[in-house]
# Entry
Amino acid sequence: MHDTIYYENNPPNHNEVLNSEQNILALDIEDLLNIEVTSVGKKEQTLSDVAAAVFVITEDDIKQSGVTNIPEALRMAPGIEVARINSSKWAISSRGFNSRFANKLLVMIDGRTVYTPSFSGVYWEVQDTVLEDVERIEVIRGPGATLWGTNAINGVINIITKHSIDTLGTLAVVGGGTYEKAFTTFRHGEEISKNTFGRAYIKGFKRGNYELSSGGTADDNWKMFQGGGRIDSQLNHRDQFTIQGDFYQGRISEEMTTPLLSAPYSLYSSDTTNTSGANLLGRWQHTESLSSDYTLQAYYDYTSRDDTILDNNHHIFDLDFNHHISVHKHHDIVWGVGYRYIKGDYDVTSGSTLNSESEQLYNFFIQDEISLIDDTLWLTLGSKFEHNDYTDWEVQPSARIFWNLHKQHKLWSSISHAARTPSRFEYDSSTLVGTLAPNSPPNTTPYPASYFLIGNNDFKSEEMTSVEIGYRVIPTRTISIDMSIYYSEYDNLRDFSYGNAVVNNNTISIPLLINNEQSGYTSGFEIASHWQSSPQLNWDLSYNYMDQTINSQNVDNLQSNSPHQNLSLRSNFELNDAIEINLWLKYTDSFESRITSNEMKIDDYTTLDIRLAWQVTKNMNLSLVGQNLLESEHIEYIESGSVKPTEIERGAYLKLLWKY
Amino acid sequence: MTTVKHYKNRILSFMIVLIFLPALSGNAALRPNLTDEYQLKAAFTLNFARLTQWPQTPNKPQEQLLICVMGNELLKSTFSIINEQNINGKQSRLKIITRRHDIKTCHILMISGIKQSNMRQIFKLSRQHNILTISELPDISQSEAVVNFIDEGNKIKFQINHYHARQSGLKISSRLLKLAQISSHNYKKSGRE
# Structure
């Protein structure tokens, strides 16, 4: 939604000579040089001019990395922790607090928020599109709440697909391999009429099983089918209209431990999660003049997921308007209003309760970029005001300053406050998390003891205040370096404590209460650099160091943990016009997974991916990709309870791509 | 249940929005047309075409002069005003480029809003195919294009890299060179490969 192009300009100046296009085309070049225009000073806000820790994963990066899905592509960004739990599950977060249900990261696909309202996190396995149609993935570390909204506490991931003018013609992909059993994509784009372009796609894949750490198959294979399309119409010079939509359906196998109230108290079983969804989005962009433009966007999103523990459906309707206007040359203002309606239907396993409910969110935001010294110093002040049904108003202000010290040296700094609002599950649910059999320590009673996670109607938003400093430098023509350091303080963090046990009908119920009694801080630094060592060879390095400290008052600290360090080094070598060789080395430090009361250590691991691509003809490309080549298997993350520790395996696939 | 009914109303209003949006935007077209920066740059580009000589090569269309644009959306839409104009007896045709390898037949390539490392490869390819490249970076020293637009006060000026023009096999009229902001020496320095 936040366009990367913006205009810094004068108020409209009605220059009479130029009122017709034909007049301007009739002028001599000498005359053109003397013409004053309404909007000189248009400046593309390139990455190097943003007062935030931003990293962009480009279309080329995605292609060269050989990734087959969005979660794996995010490993290219510094400061983003991507850990694969098993074949179909990922834990992804920015700047700490990683878990499968990480809730401090906002993820959007073409302006549509893809979080699941029941836990405020993202089911990554169902976030997909045609990777060849992705224009870029913008990754913003740190608070992005002012412009984007709640839950953008530690970062925003913005997946942007291409305008359909850029996807004309036919694309066909087929491939398969050891773990990537089979995949295929077909996309076709057409010029529908003058200035109206469209595309439609279908894709599908089948991925294999990994192995359990304890031996044997994890039985976690999955297959998905997805389709969709997009139409972009340039109605005239000033108006653009986009309509797009997708649908998907998938079957995900998994082995899960389901807690039961009575003997045998827990059941380890193979199960299939059926998941499906559909969305439709319309966006109208109007350019009033180069100093004023606005966007109106509406979407509807439906998701359905039926697994062993929870069967849920969500309907989300969202409407957003935003307006960008330049005032008096020195103020570049963006403001907007938004409304979201969410309806959740839940059906939980026996023993648990989660009521079906609807909720509404509305917000207003304003941001002013003030030019203090022309082309040298900008101050950006803004705040978002968002109302939700649980905690009423959340105010999320930020102040950012950008100093264009020199063509090759840029400095920025920011201070912001952000909030993570309660999710349905935290507010009013009762979830059976486990049962101890009679006379099995620590349960010494002759009755079964069941633990229930109990929602809290007084649960408050988790709050964070963060300070960041960034520096971008271009030391030589071939090297660029982007660095940031941050310190973030958290308050009202979620924790759990035991309530009083209740004995009833020969069973013991022990409530686990959800509270806001933790606080903590994270600090760290991130670096991303690009080096074009020769016209045929370039290198991308990203590294982050992160330290997370949680002050827990209760015994059971269920805040998850993240590794101190991540490193990614990629090289792209164009041997000649036809052959490309890509290497990708990744390192993740060891960490203690504290998601359950038992600490579990995840060892550090290093992986290497290699891609060899051959442009066979003008229209055909053949590539061979090897993934996780250094070790036959490694473990990246252990999710609490339900999913057994699973090994991520070495794999290879062959891919054939046609474009015509 | 009232919430269900409420939700149905939302769907209805969403559909209403979709139906009426094109109508709304149609009205906007009636507003007086302000001249913007890209219209002016398009007019400049037309003049560059008239004041440049391309070498005789078989890989370019002979009857037409192909003006290609690549990059940001506003650029692509605004440059349509210089489609089908007369350029020294040839007709101009605008072509929107999405893939690097499609530029070979272009006479002129205006490029903006593309990652620096990609731009470098495009400029390199352009020099091999006799293309007059145009960028809009803050200074020509940051570009490998033949021509670079810069903002100066409320006006638009342009810079020419004569070294890159020669490398691309282009003959640029002295009238154009005289108006360009920087003369033709000291280009070897910026003409990196």
Summary: Chain B touches chain A through 68 residues (CB under 8 Å). Residues 2-28 of chain B form the longest helix (27 residues). Chain B has two domains: 1-31, 37-190. Residues 1-31 of chain B form one domain.
